[in-house]
Task: structure prediction
Amino acid sequence: MEHKNITLEELKEKSPLARTKYALIGIDGFVDIIVHPVDKRSGPGDQFKAISTITDFSDRIASAAGKSSNIEFAPSVEKLGGNGPIMANAQCAHGLNVRYLGALGREAVHPVFQDFSRFTDAISIADPGVTHAAEFDDGKIMFGKMASLEGITYERLCESLGEAALIDIFEKSDLIGIVNWTMIPYLSDVFRNLIERVLPELSQDKSRIFFFDLADPEKRSDTDLREVLDIFSQFEAFGQVILGLNLREAEQVDALLGFDPLPINPENLQLVAARIRERLALHTVVVHPVADAACATPEGTAYAAGPFCEKPKITTGAGDHFNSGFVTARLIGLSPESALTLAVATSGSYVRTAVSPTLEDLAEFIRSW
Result:
C-alpha cells in the first residue's frame, strides 16, 4: 500500500528527531491485574477454561439474578497501568525524553512502578488506583478501584513541586499529555488552574503540543463533559491541541455536540473527526476504532486501516499505544496519514507482543504487515 511506503520514507527521515523531544505525561496511575474469568476448572493454576466472550460473561451474571454466583478471576499478570503510565512507557520506547507526573504512590512508589519511576524521573503525587482487567476474545471489562485518585488536585501538585517548578517543567516540554479525565474527579479544576496560573508564564511557542484523552466518559454527566471539552479549546491559546477519542467516545462527543449519528465507514469516520474538530475549534481530533483510524487537522482529514489482530496477546493498553504512536509521529513532523499509520502499527505491534515497540520495530512491522 502506498501509504505504508510514504510512512516508511517519512519515518526514516524524521525518527532521529525523537531523541531531541521532551514530553511531560500524566496524570493517573493504576496497578493493572490482568484476569481471565473462569468458566470450568480442571485443576489448580492455569488448568481452566476461560469464559471466552463478553456475551457469555453477561449471560453467566444474568443467570444469577435472584440467586447468587461465584465467578473466579484467574490472575494472569500484575503490571503498571493507567492511561498515562502506559502511554509514557510507549513514548520512552519511541525514544522521547519522558518525564512522568502522576499517581504512583503517595508515601512510597508502588513496586510495579519502581523501574518506570526511575527512567521517567517521575513525580508521584497520590496513590495509584487498582484495576482488574477481565480480558475476552471480543474485548475487555475493567473493574476499577480509584478513590485514591481524588488526591490529584492542583493544590497537591503545588505541594509536591511548588508552582515555580511546575512552570519550569511545562516550559521544557515539547509535548504535554494529560489523560484519563473520566476517572480523576478534580482534573477539570487542575486544567483551569494550569490555564490561569501556569501556561501564561510559558514562552509563547505555538508548536507546543497538548494531548488529551477522555478515557470512556460515559459515567460522567453531559454537563461535566461539555465543560471539559470547552476547557480543551482554551489550551489552543498556548499551543496545538490533539484530542484522542476511541469510537465510543467519538460517538458520545459527536452526539453531545448536537450531530446526528452516522453509520461508521472510512468516509464518515473522517467526517465525525472533522465536525468535532470544527465545533470545538481544536487543532486536531483523532478517532480510533479497533481496526482503523481517522483524523482531522488544519491540513484536512486522513484515514488509515490497521493491522487487525483476531487473537491478541493483550488488549489492555492498546489505545494508549495508539495515542503514543500518533502523538510521537506528529511531534517529529510526520504527515497526518503517516501519523495514523504509525499509530495503528504501534497498537498492532503491542497487542501481538505485549511489548512497547521502538520506532525501528515499527518500521519493520509496517514493512511486513
DSSP finds 13 helices and 14 strands in the chain. The longest strand covers residues 30-41.
